[in-house]
Amino acid sequence: MSETHSTPEPTEEESPGTTTSTPTTAGETEEEVQESWVDYDFDGPTKFSVEDLNVYYGEDHAIQNISMDIPENSVTALIGPSGCGKSTFLRCLNRMNDRIKAASVEGSVELDGQEIYQEGIDLVELRKRVGQVFQSPNPFPKSIRDNVAYGPRKHGDIQSGLLARLLGDDSGEEEDEIVERALRKAALWDEVHDRLEDNALGLSGGQQQRLCIARALAVDPEVILMDEPASALDPIATSKIEDLVDELSEDYTVVIVTHNMQQAARISDQTAVFLTGGELVEYGDTEQIFENPQSQRVEDYITGKFG
Ligand SMILES: Nc1ncnc2c1ncn2[C@@H]1O[C@H](COP(=O)(O)OP(=O)(O)OP(=O)(O)O)[C@@H](O)[C@H]1O
Ligand SMILES: [Mg+2]
Fold first, then answer.
1. Which domains does the chain have, with CATH numbers?
2. How far does residue 134's CA lie from ligand 2's centre (Å)?
3. Which residue's CA is the nearest one to ligand 1's atom 8?
4. Looking at the predicted structure, is the pLDDT value of residue 17 above 50?
5. How far is the CA of 283 from the centre of ligand 1 (A)?
6. Which residues line ligand 1 (CB under 6 A)?
7. pTM for the whole thing?
8. Quick one: which H or E segment has residue 192?
9. Is 103 helix (H, G, I), strand (E, B) or coil?
10. Which residues fall in a compositionally biased region of kind Low complexity (predicted)?
11. What mean pLDDT value characterizes the chain?
């Protein structure tokens, strides 16, 4: 409707008639999202291509027509106020919303060019490729080893040493190797290698969260979805998770939800800003989003004026 927002710099002392971008506490304005704000141009391969994605919980429209491409082997941060649909969006990337009765998903999500919302997709295989780490560490009440080996055992990735040798098949890793590899990648090995049979619930919160990351890594995923993985942790444990995310992005595509603006600025390559109503308002290079946002609402949100 209004074209007054083609210039990102608002003039402070304008007459009230033109200040349509003044946000309410919920960030609602008449600002119209410009296509260029969400059109992120990157080099390198695309991991996810999301097209016209809508999610409803019954009548409630939680994700509004979102289209965005997510680059491979990089960190994408999703930020925005509570209730704006970040977790809902994240769950669309490995069809975890399928488990929520009230949720219905429309639109398209391609992983490496293949539609994941089509009949016949193997959801177990999909979730093996696209792993997930949750807000609160949720290890099983089992040994550290059992936690890490859980997925590979379930997926049959572990070859029994003897059987494999008898069959002349040495392609599979043995359990010890998988457990060590995953714990090393999750930067936990040094702290737990001599207590693998101990119950995982005896670890500190930060260690438990790295264990959950190790558990996700053990099945050799391509993508790791993280929903506020550090929000329950102290600053030191948080910085370990941040270092880890940075390292993981060399081999994995990481998509991470965070409420912590500094964290998003520190660890991500690109940032997507969701605002109230499940709208993607701006998506681009993290530096650009934080230093020179194009949307007034995004600027207000980032500078703490609402949310
Ligand atoms: N299982 C559900 N059933 C019904 N409505 C839901 C469900 N999960 C989320 N919603 C609604 O969908 C909207 C988006 O929720 P979502 O959890 O995705 O937000 P969020 O951005 O992750 O918020 P937060 O930052 O608080 O975690 C909210 O209005 C929420 O109430
Ligand atoms: Mg959430």
1. 30-140+222-302 (3.40.50.300)
2. 10
3. 88
4. no
5. 20
6. 57, 60, 62, 80, 82-88, 100, 102
7. 0.87
8. helix 189-192
9. strand
10. 16-27
11. 87
